[in-house]
Write a structure and sequence with these properties.
globular; two-stranded antiparallel ribbon; single chain; 7 strands; alpha+beta
Length: 119
């Protein structure tokens, strides 16, 4: 289910900023994430503002530029990170979480790496 959420999020997003942004902070119940504000054509990949849905216990971060959108996620109770980008980088497993679960900090590091790898 977490992988499905990341795939859905990746398909829905299409913009980039230079800093990674946490969208979901492992809520204790499914809820709305941080609103992603549409940007400017030629600068951002996402042009339309939307609010994603966050699954319980999921950390999700994105990063974008003018041509690529990258996303990474991991469950606070899970054991695997997932990441992908719109530049032919479909969502795949991207490492193992600590025994205590995935963290927001590692998710943000992974999304930065995924965006860099798309260049």
């Amino acid at each position: 289910m977490k992988k499905l959420f990341v795939v859905t999020a990746l398909a829905a997003f299409s913009s980039m900023s230079f800093a990674q942004t946490a969208v979901c902070a492992a809520p204790s119940a499914a809820s709305n994430g941080t609103t992603i504000t549409g940007g400017t054509a030629g600068t951002d990949f996402v042009l339309s503002t939307f609010t994603p849905k966050c699954s319980t216990n999921v950390h999700l971060a994105y990063q974008q530029n003018a041509t690529t959108f990258a996303v990474a996620s991991g469950s606070a109770k899970g054991k695997t990170y997932y990441s992908g980008n719109t530049n032919g980088g479909g969502v795949t497993a991207d490492g193992t979480c600590a025994a205590t679960g995935c963290t927001a900090a590692d998710t943000q590091t992974k999304v930065t790496a995924k965006l860099s790898a798309s260049s």
